[in-house]
Specification:
CATH architecture of the largest domain: 3-Layer(aba) Sandwich
Strand order of the largest sheet: 2-1-7-4-5
Number of helices: 27
CATH topology of the largest domain: Rossmann fold
Low-confidence stretches: 554-568, 613-620
Shape: globular
Mean pLDDT: 83
Distance between the termini: 86 Å
Radius of gyration: 31 Å
Number of strands: 31
Strand content: 15-25%
CATH class of the largest domain: Alpha Beta
Amino acid sequence: MIKITLKDGSIKEVEEGKSVFDVAKEISEGLARVATCASVDGKVVDLRYILNKDCNLEIHTFESSLEGKKAYWHTTSHIMAQAIKRIKPETKLAIGPSIDEGFYYDFDVEKNFTDEDKEKIEAEMKKIIKENCFYVDKTGFIKEWWDNKDDVTLITRPRRFGKTLNMDMLRCFFSNEYKDRGELFEGLNIWEDEKYREIQGAYPVIFLSFAGIKGNTFELSRKQISDRIIDLYESNRFLLKSDCISDTEKARYISFLENPMDEDISFKLNELSNYLSRYYKKKVIILLDEYDTPMQEAYVNGYWEELVAFTRSLFNSTFKTNPYLERAIMTGITRVSKESIFSDLNNLKVITVTSDEYSKCFGFTEEEVFDALDEQELSSEKEKVKKWYDGFTFGTSKDVYNPWSIINFLDEKKYKTYWADSSSNGLVSQLIQQGSSKTKVIMEELLEGKSIKTKLDEQIVFNQLDGSSEAIWSLLLACGYLKVDYVDFANSEGNNIYELSLTNFEVKKMFEKMIDNWFKTRDDSSSEFVSALIQGDLDAMNYYINEITANIFSCFDVAGKEESRIRPENFYHGFVLGLMVDQIDNYIITSNRESGFGRYDIMLEPINKNSAKYQGSIPTGRILPGIIIEFKVINPRKENTLEETVEAALKQIEEKNYDAELIGRGVNPSNIHHYGFAFKGKEVLIDGNRKDAS
């Protein structure tokens, strides 16, 4: 038991580990209902504060003290902001939230709020209050980052893990725009230590985000980045009235605002750092959110090299050769390779999903999630919530939950793929769909609940993704679709080997839906194609494969990819192999294995050599055949037509004696089907020979 001395001098004995709110309830249910915060030994804390020792306790209400009013206003302002984001999701939050006379928020909206809007906002606020929302304190991130004293920090986390919120929290804490606004952090973990109170609002801060930079050309992306920097210059126009910068510098400042595309914008953040540092007599903190969004767009849209050169110059002047920089932090989803854009940044500290630093600063811990479920009277759902949304791992920290999924589940009380559905997942889908046959087989194993063991290179080289399966698994890990189950540090080859599996049930459902969509045509052509392949119906095979390719392939799929330049049939190989995966109960499916005098492309070996079992729409009564498939892309130097190409494929099967492995495994030679696949862009021609066993 501990002794609590109340405001009136009375002493109350309570069990150690109780919250302030619990004590308020013991005093009076009415007091608990109107309590807004408390002071423990003179320090303002929230109602969830745990009491572990003897102390003086004063419980505040709106009517009893200014502290009580501030807590109420602070909370109400956040509820208002949440309500507005629900009603108008496009709204950008600017400055807030509370002052001594009440609260306010600045919002960036296209149109001013109408009286009708205000009524809707008020109604939504009441709804939110009834939902009994919860708050998760992540201010420990401020302390950890500041104490680490790294010059430039790059932190990668999957989308919807609170990167932007944490960056905005850093801005509110350090920026001199929020000087004397310590009430924003009163009652939070960071405010418990006096030394952090002293640096709150003490620095000029440059904050920008690349989140919306999604141009389909280099010129458009460069302009969008330029616009972000122009906005920063506009928001700091007060510098033009200062004596800290010269007339020449003021002229250059104005010139940039009026004719931004005539300027070398790669140096402009360095220049603005100089001005702010001189004005405030302190070096600047630079916060860059979602730094890698333009890089992903550049990869997808084909202007990678141009953007890399520009970004390297921008980052070098901003983060490396910037004498006015105190510290900087960048966030993103992926760690773009150092050779690409960070080659000059030897002062960069990189934190990925496999790092232990900041492991509990992004996302919700299991304790935080279970506390929220208890608050929402959903304690009985813990096991199912864990199955659906647990599984993310950051460093050695396990049982991390995606905040977006948890928040939406608490809102709707339904199990859905909230996080997975919050993005198109286009790049991931593209890489798997266009990946090698090995990639598709591994994906099937992951969906079955198995794990894979692989080396990882967390430095993502986007222009090498096409030909590297390791790069694909690294990307999936960075994006949150895979988790680390185990690490074999420095194996016999000197490499760390990672055991990876799908993160959770939500991710599994996402991939199942993704794969279903690939092959979802009007007539279920993929299934019909496989049936025709096993039956040896060449006319049907040709009809259905051309229907599938017409619906699924794009010019981007079949032209210009790195792997296609090395071995053009690889794309088609992987695609057709993907169509076969539903036959794993009937066949052992292998690819690129030695047999006879060469390496076949795909082989289907019947599991039961005497079985008459067929799957789906395939008719019964026939023994399952062995199948050999060879792919060829038309070579204009050797062939004039697809007919000549497919003939070359069939000739190769015969000459290389690819049947040898099937025959050695007990398949009747007369029951082996040979198929040649000839491709030209989206055009496909299939020919073959078959003999059915009697």
